Amino acid sequence: MQIPYELALGWRYTRAGRATRRNGFISFISGVSMLGIALGVAALIIVLSVMNGFQKEVRDRMLSVVSHIEIFAPQGAALPDPARTLAEARQNPNVVGAAPFVAAQALLARGEDMKGTLVRGIDPALEGAVTDLAATNEQVLNMLVPGEFRVVLGGELARSLGVRAGDVITLIAPAGQVTPAGVVPRLKQMTVAGTFDSGHYEYDSALVMLHHEDAQRIFRLEGPTGVRLKLKDLHQAREVAMELARTLSGQLLIRDWTQQNRTWFAAVQLEKRMMFIILTLIVAVAAFNLVSTLVMTVTDKRADIAILRTLGASPKSIMSIFVVQGAMVGVIGTCVGLLLGLGVAFNIDVIVPAIERALNASFLPKDIYLISKMPSEPQSSDIVPIGVISLVLSFVATLYPSWRASRVNPAEALRYE
Known about the structure:
About 55% of the residues lie in helices and about 20% in strands. The protein is an alpha+beta fold. Strands 2-3-7-4-6-5 form a six-stranded mixed beta barrel.
């Protein structure tokens, strides 16, 4: 099977013989363009993979405290029929765990120190089925016995109040008691059963957990305020929430984990989009260096083009030769960039520590950042568009010089040869 002469000539021009100084210079510019495309593609893959890794780490730590879906009654009231809501939710095939909870806000006081807190009443026997935090702190949460009014505090909250296991603190409920002397806030002394560290500062510094029956007594509720669910696939939370909205009985509100932290996820997606655009400009600059390379090649090969035209080559064939040359540079640069980027992205947990040891520095100090290791998660949804965009830009950059080559007049080109 014969290779089309356009492809053979395009590949030959890509390799750019170095018989003359001019050819050598053209080859150097072509190599620089190829290297620029490779580095741009590699940078895009590495940066987006690291951003995906950070997003996954923060999301996983967040979901160790937050359930995939929350079902709750309007205005913080108790669920009208918690048992029925639990039973109906468990009937969904995507739900793997369900547990009741009480959500409220209160003040926590220790001496003169006072902190605003998020109070979560839980059932220790069922909480492990909906959050990883409960599963990893099962021994501490099992100390939450109804009637004993014990609490488990976030590690940062406990440190800010200066308390540890066994200390007594005062929980102040927002709704007070009406007495002849006026409205008196409801106070309840609680014993600290232990602490937890989720790795997410927002919850470690504000979350208080106690038994849901104790929470119901303190906040004068007739039952749990909601139900928390864990799903087989966290990425299907929005679809499952819509299904539950159609199947659950009663006037209930449903919220999935993406809605609870919508601002944070929107900010991350915007940042990722902007980084993609900025780094794509690097690839675009490298790709359009091909324009100057091909213009110089066309000028250098005018005699060759004229001879091919006199032998019967059509303008379309001449244009194809130089399109092949530019496309080859783009394809090779893109492939090298993909290999380099994926190689670094998949081995960043080895490369970054080696660089830190060589420079005697720490990029993510443990005492400042929650994540002390550089995470990376390459995703095909990022890699495929990067490769396609790089190839398209390389192809577009070849069109004008190739068209100029097809317009070369053989008589004019051979006049001074």
